[in-house]
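input
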Amino acid sequence: MLSLDYLGKRLRFISHRLTHFDLQKPDPEDQEISLVDIERFLSESDRKNPLFLNFYTRTGLCEALEQYGAFDRLRKRGFDPYLSFHPLDSERYILHLTDKENGPVLVELVCRLTILKAKKSQAEVNTGDLFDLLAIEWILLQNPQAKFTDERPPLPGQKHPGLGVGREIITLLQIMTERLEKDGMLAIPAHYHNAVLYNHSFRFFSPEKEAELKALERDLSDLTLAQASWAVEQGLVIDKETKNKFEWHPEEMIWPRTEKLEKYFSSDYYYNLLEKTLEKKQFYVDINQARLLLENSQH
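output
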């Protein structure tokens, strides 16, 4: 398996060879457009098909995924990848990568361009500062041909095993963020395991929430990711201080691209508050309740 660092470098090397023209090639339905109409074409006024995130054509995205080798890797696994997308509303786009046209979904992505407004001054960030972000509202990566096993059990929310390309997809979304010259990327993980997987390159904007995640990883380290995520999901994780069941509340995670955001996450303010909160946060699994749930599931 390629290291994340090598994967990022290789994909970024390829991205530098892709031009705006490559990524905005007219779709077949728009091929009759003339050069004098290109400005109107890019503004979507005369287009039959929309632009993904106001930038990419379907043909352009397919060209990029071919160049990155993503389509070829899926073909080697027996899939015939077909890409499509459309607007969900005035802000959000949904993208599907299926096995053949109208076939089973391999990748589903819902995203939008958004602005994050700082609610208060913190370190490098001032009240009212605006950050232009690519927001990932939903991402599904699944292999409908695979089966769950004891070694690879389902995670909360999964209907099929994962596709095994999560880090590659995140890297491609980071490259997309760079191409669109955004300040960073935003994700709101619906489940504990989503946050763990995002945490390779994302951080919670709130240092207290980041500390909560670190504390959970520390205190649930004897469990597999699936076991830990199900323990959180089923209310088996207890806050040692309050004795209450821990509940996962999704918040914003950020991958910073610009210097200002990077400085915020590396600031003394962020680090000190994270460490202070981490010292206080402790969790444990309610073993008796876990046994009871297991017994009930066997009847």
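quick obs: The chain has one domain: 4-297.
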